[in-house]
Design brief:
The structure is a single chain. This protein has helices at 2-22, 24-50, 62-71, 73-86. It is an all-alpha fold and 87 residues long. It has one domain.
């Protein structure tokens, strides 16, 4: 069963790469997404280690970075609000 999943993952990854390479518009989208991803990770890193919000530390994981990429600064507020509510 693991072999089937691995083959499916490899095939879908190759097809996705092929679509991105064939479509020149995708490179701009991919570059923009990568810049947003780096900016979100950098913002969370700076927020954690600058001491702006004492008592809270936002983990750098795919879920929090993805939230900040999609929502921007309100995403940081959402993650902090969830952290205050749950802990």
């Amino acid at each position: 069963m693991k072999t089937i999943w691995l083959v499916s993952l490899i095939a879908s990854s190759l097809l996705l790469i092929m679509v991105v390479v064939r479509n020149r518009m995708s490179f701009r989208w991919l570059r923009r997404f990568a810049l947003h991803l780096v900016a979100a990770a950098l913002a969370l890193y700076l927020l954690n280690y600058s001491g702006v919000i004492s008592g809270f530390e936002v983990p750098l994981n795919p879920a929090t970075i993805g939230t900040v990429v999609l929502l921007g600064l309100p995403g940081i507020a959402l993650v902090l609000g969830l952290q205050m509510t749950l802990f």
